[in-house]
Amino acid sequence: MTLPLVTPKWLYEKLGVDDSLVILDASIEFQIPMEPTKDTDGVIPQSQRFDYDNVFCDSNNPLPHMMPSESVFNQRASLLGITPTSTVVVYDNSGTFASPRAWWMLKALGLEHVYVLSGGLPAWKAHQYPVDTAFVAPRPTTLEQPVDPRHFLNSEQVLTIASQQSRTIVDARSLARFNGEVKEPREGVRSGHIPSSVCLPFLELMRNGTLKPVNELQTLFSSINEDKNTPLVFSCGSGVTACILALAASMCGYQNLAVYDGSWTEWGQRHDLSIEC
Question: Which of 236, 243, 252, 277 is catalytic?
Answer without folding.
Answer: 236
